[in-house]
Design goal:
Layout (H helix, E strand, L loop, with lengths): L3 E9 L7 H10 L4 E5 L7 H13 L16 E4 L8 E7 L2 E9 L12 E2 H17 L4 E5 L9 H5 L9 E5 L3 H6 L8 E5 L3 E5 L4 E2 L1
Parallel strand pairs: 6-11
Antiparallel strand pairs: 1-5, 1-7, 2-3, 3-4, 4-5, 8-10, 9-10
Amino acid sequence: MPPYFSVEVGYSHKSLNKNFVDRICSFIFTKFPFKNGYWNSESNSLLEIINWNQQLLEKRFILGYDEHVSNNYKQLLLSSELYTHMRMYWGYRNDKISLSIIIPEYEILVEEGKWQFREEKINPIIDLCQDLWEQSPVEIIQSCLEMDGGPISIGKIRNGELPSINPIAILNRDYSKTIYNLNSFKLNTELKEIENNGIMIIANELIRL
């Protein structure tokens, strides 16, 4: 299995309503259409996958250590002319809902193992992140390479710790301490105010033009 680049989208569980999963999936599908279920959901229809994940989120489900993976959230593949493999899946922990969208690193980096993104491959992801922030009740959006160790918790970010910006993050404009701490970030960043009180942070020197 290759290492993956991921976009990590965070929501409060309080934002969950009866059509939460359907609404967000439908929005993503306008950009990257549904292809089919993945792994333990290959034989499921889209409606079955959406309803299953909605029910698990409503239950605040976390897979037990000795529980079969077939009980977990159902993953799905997205169609794209840019990436041969684009996958998304849901999760829950500590009253937070997570949505992960992953792509193999070799499909999005200039060279495998080189820390620089191909502009034509990362720009559609940046656009998706902005649209998700503006069109759904997102708390935080981060991006990671596999060696980053995953996204930073929203609690730590509220207290001033920087999100994972590899090469994009979006956070609330009110997190002034975190925004101020960008001065200590090792890479030059572009800050852009967007709708829904957001600040989009892009590490432009990580993107090869």
